[in-house]
């Protein structure tokens, strides 16, 4: 199998890495390593979802099975729930106002609104949003144990939403700092890269790539594919951000070693000086980032009574 046939998302991964903070052009080896990691994560999610569905006595996986896997990451769950809420709003707006174009939004715009939790629609679309945008309920929440539900208030925010908003505001702040000095053409390119997706208008390719029908017997519906598209973007973003930290630490150590050997005066670095001579992250940085993300959490060690030794654990979801 040629490299072209093996790696199907080189361009999309490069665009996602650019949006996540990678200013250089990563090599095909780097994007190939990331694609293999993302594919492994998707297969692992499908396997675990199939096991959860079997416990329920069902052969088909549901969206709740997929969300259940990331339930400990409250910020990610909150962003995903908001994403699904806006997805329903877009769908309802398109049904009631086909010429308004509200349902044909790009995934980047939908994720941006999901992250920011904002909407500035007016007219009929605003009415639809007000009526239809409801919080996505999850079966393991305390509120689902009762037949009667407490009416939600518009200004009501739980701890998960507050935590998610804090992480989202930091990402938006980083994006604002990056785009502040861009020219018009550069910002247009950045906006196009923000639309990158594994699944949007690539459903058939994604199903073949993820092994649908092989990993899981049942064919997941479109909602499952949309959620996986959201999570794959999050995985690439998390890997890129962690790899950038690894490379920054490596560059700092090399610079310190050079200064120690040469014993010369440290040159002053001006604004943008580091970015002009900066090299893109390499495959080794991504592998180290993945290793750090796979490290067992202190909570898992405590559950084993700090026994030490080799702990048998399955692949952790990023």
Shape by Cα distribution:
globular
> What is the ordering of alpha helices and beta strands?
HHHHHHHHHHHHHH
Helix count from the secondary structure assignment: 14
| Percent of residues in helices | 55-70%
Unreliable stretches, pLDDT < 50, 5 or more residues?
115-126, 128-133, 266-276
How much is the average pLDDT?
78
Please report which band the strand proportion falls in: under 5%, 5-15%, 15-25%, 25-35%, 35-45% or over 45%: under 5%
| Main structural class | mainly alpha
Q: What is the gyration radius calculated from CA atoms?
A: 22 Å
**Number of DSSP-assigned strands:** 0
Largest sheet: none
> Termini distance?
28 Å
Structure write-up:
This protein has 318 residues and is mostly helical. The chain is 60% helix and 0% strand. It is built from 14 helices and no strands. The protein has helices at 3-6, 10-19, 28-55, 63-69, 74-96, 107-116, 124-132, 159-179, 184-193, 203-210, 222-262, 273-276, 283-293, 298-303. α3 packs parallel to α13. The two termini are 28 Å apart.
Write the layout of secondary structure elements.
Elements lengths: L2 H4 L3 H10 L8 H28 L7 H7 L4 H23 L10 H10 L7 H9 L26 H21 L4 H10 L9 H8 L11 H41 L10 H4 L6 H11 L4 H6 L15
What's a concise summary of this model?
The chain is mainly alpha-helical and 318 residues long. The protein is 60% helix and 0% strand. The chain contains 14 helices and no strands.
Question: Which terms would index this structure?
Answer:
mainly alpha, 60% helix, 318 residues, single chain
């Amino acid at each position: 199998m040629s490299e072209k046939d093996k790696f199907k998302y080189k361009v999309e991964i490069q665009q996602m890495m650019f949006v996540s903070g990678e200013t250089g052009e990563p090599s095909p080896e780097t994007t190939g390593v990331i694609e293999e990691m993302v594919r492994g994560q998707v297969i692992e999610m499908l396997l675990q979802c199939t096991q959860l569905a079997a416990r329920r006595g069902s052969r088909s996986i549901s969206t709740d099975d997929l969300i259940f896997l990331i339930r400990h990451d409250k910020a990610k769950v909150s962003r995903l729930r908001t994403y699904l809420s806006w997805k329903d709003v877009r769908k309802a707006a398109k049904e009631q106002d086909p010429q308004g174009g509200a349902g044909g939004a790009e995934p980047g715009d939908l994720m941006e609104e999901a992250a920011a939790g904002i909407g500035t629609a007016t007219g009929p679309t605003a009415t639809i949003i007000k009526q239809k945008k409801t919080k996505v309920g999850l079966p393991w929440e305390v509120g689902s144990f009762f037949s009667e539900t407490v009416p939600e208030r518009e200004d009501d925010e739980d701890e998960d939403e507050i935590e998610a908003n804090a992480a989202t505001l930091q990402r938006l702040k980083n994006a604002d700092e990056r785009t502040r000095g861009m020219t018009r053409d550069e910002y247009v390119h950045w906006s196009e890269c923000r639309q990158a997706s594994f699944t949007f208008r690539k459903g058939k390719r994604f199903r073949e790539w993820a092994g649908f029908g092989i990993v899981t017997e049942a064919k997941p519906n479109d909602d499952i594919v949309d959620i996986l598209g959201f999570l794959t973007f999050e995985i690439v973003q998390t890997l890129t951000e962690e790899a950038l930290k690894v490379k920054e630490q490596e560059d700092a150590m090399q610079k310190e070693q050079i200064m120690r050997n040469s014993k010369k005066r440290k040159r002053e670095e001006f604004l943008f000086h580091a970015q002009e001579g900066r090299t893109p992250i390499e495959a080794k940085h991504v592998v180290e980032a993945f290793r750090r993300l796979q490290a067992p959490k202190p909570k898992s060690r405590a559950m084993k009574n700090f026994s030490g030794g080799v702990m048998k654990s399955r692949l952790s979801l990023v």
